[in-house]
Amino acid sequence: MDSFDRIEDYAIIGDTHSVGLINKCGSLDWLCLPRFDSAAIFAKLLGGTNNGYFKIAPSDPDFTATRSYLEDTLVLETVFKTSTGSFKLTDFMPIFDESPRVVRIVKGLSGKVKVRLELAFRFDYGNTIPWVISREGHLTAAAGPEAVSFYSDVSFHGENFTTIADFEIQEGNTVPFQIIYHPSFRKSPKPTDAIYELRETETYWKNWISSCNYTGSYLEPVKRSLLTLKALTYYPTGGIVAAPTTSLPETLGGSRNWDYRYCWLRDASLTLESLLKAGFAEEALSFRDWLLRAVAGDAQKIQIMYGPGGERRLTEFEIDWLQGYENSKPVRIGNAASGQFQLDVYGELMSAFHIARTCGLKDNYTVWDLQQLLVNFVENSWSKPDDGIWEVRGQKRHFTHSKVMAWVAIDRAIKAVEQFGLSGDLVKWKKLRDAIKKEVLDQGWSEKKQAFTQSFGSDKLDASVLLIATNGFLDPTDDRILKTVQAIKNELLVNGFVLRYQVDDDGKVDGLSGREGAFLACSFWLVDALSLCNRKNEAEELFNSLLTIRNDVGLLSEEYDSILNRQVGNFPQAFSHISLVNSAFYLEDFDSRKQTEYQTSLREKIKTFAGKEINQSWIHKNYVKKQKI
Q: For 565-621, how does the pLDDT look when each residue is reduced to its tens digit (9 = 90+)?
């Protein structure tokens, strides 16, 4: 049976269409092409070597390996040292407009090292062994509509449906490899100059991150989180996937395994907030427009998540030929939670559109029309129970967070009228806003717990109520907020990490059995709440402890298992990195003067972007144009 690397032993490469995961020993174990949600061509991450991988490492297993990203890029460098010498493996995915590709470059650093390459293409999540046609320096693997071409400067041969190459690298020599994905009915694309591609890819990422306007004490983790967020953005549409993986377990060996290669509305306002604060106006506008297209139509049929292109049919099924990461079954493709009713997403959308408008992103003609439909829906549906932010697969309830977000939806509509002169029924909306707030204060607050609780009439705590401190429902220094924050610290802060809620083995809380790790975004929400409650020392202490669990290249998964001291859940997780960025800004203690300066700077950037001067779009398009030369 194949052994598994720890989740945090992986790094990513990406091309703003998809992401590949590479372990510390130079094995590319997960890659879906041409999109995040396409079927994997390498699926060893969830199975074994027979399910597809691409490894380049010293032939002698007695080696050491260290890795890092080229500064401010998504270009990964791994240095292998052996008793006879050392070499560097450089991995990246060039930004593309037609054919996605992976480039791997081996460069000798000292002495001579024997190197072994192992390449096993397996289509359909490791289920299909393709037909391979080999030519000098080139092979093509094809099955059905898919094909991948492999180009090599060294001799290779086949063993047990795996391509093998054994070669020697010495100081100063360079050997490139490329795999290129393409439709099987088209001719194999030609390889490009690997060194040129490396230089251009490095320039692309450095130019992109140069727009970051964060200058605080946590610059390195903020920039790495933003680069990760960009890597998880599907450039053609602006949608941002929650993670590039499926079924990495929330508990090792458990069944809480979900497909996260989709775009959640739950993350909308926090995503826009992080992008705009950091100065990325085009990404924010693209994501805002993706939201508009994705939810267009009947407000009653809004889903909680969509595909990267805005797809709505995300049918969930299980595949039995993969054993699951560390035997965590089932492996799921698709996500049935897309059909749930989550009241909070309406507040997320309204808040996101308000943030965009406040920061100067110009409305297109449909924004306010859509918002009014959302308000009408909330008006008629806010009193109904829902499935909640955590997509529980149990009974619908009156979740406190959901009701607060219904309040946010109406509040942001009122602000749109009062601050931007848009049309709306202020009298009716203000009455509705007051009614929702009264209901939350009356039924969401527990005198026994002295805290806002998970749902009306319950004494169970839920980390989502921490967001009350940041969304304007109450002043952050309100006594009820202060007591809620303390209650969360007392009951949900376990070994330094905040649980979403307390689970039970019989599934009564969320319809699922077994425990889970600490959802990392919740720990960052506690940082935010502590910052706003004027408990900055505690906030900084928690934030710094969270930074220590990032892996060696600065990446975070969805959750952390503080018992096993391991990252768990899908990886890397956009929500974790979004929350890190927002918390870093909260810790900056923006006073009114700094906030005004920030808003002025951001508006100037947006004007530049709107004026079609050099911007991120230009960077991307100019890069792709160069590729064709």
A: 999 999 999 999 999 999 999 998 644 445 556 556 666 666 665 544 434 554 455
Residue-wise pLDDT tens digits, 170-219: 999 999 999 999 999 999 999 999 999 999 999 999 999 999 999 999 99
Q: Are 180 and 188 in contact (CB under 8 A)?
A: yes
Same domain, 293 and 237: yes
Q: Which of 30-44, 382-396, 492-506 has the lowest mean pLDDT?
A: 492-506
Fill in the DSSP letter of residue 90: E
Sign of CA dihedral 488, 493, 498, 504: negative
Residues 6+ apart with CB under 8 A from 568: 7, 248, 249, 250, 251, 252, 516, 517, 557, 558, 559, 560, 561
The number of domains in the chain is 2
CA 542 to chain centroid, in Å, comes to 22
CATH number of the structural domain spanning residue 134: 2.70.98
Residue 410 lies inside a defined structural domain of this protein: yes
CB 523 within 8 A of CB 542: yes
What is the C-alpha separation between 41 and 53, in angstroms, rounded? 8
Is 502 exposed, middle or buried (CB count within 10 Å of its CB: 0-12, 13-18, 19+)?
Answer: middle
Q: Is residue 624 part of a domain?
A: no
Least Cα distance to 348 among 371, 380, 314 occurs for 371
State the pLDDT at residue 578. 97
Q: Are residues 174 and 86 in the same domain?
A: yes
Is there a single domain that holds both residue 193 and residue 215?
no
**Model pTM greater than 0.85?**
yes
Asked whether 108 and 170 are in contact (CB, 8 A), the reply is yes
- Residue 492 CA to residue 484 CA, distance in Å, equals 11
Domain interval for residue 502: 211-610
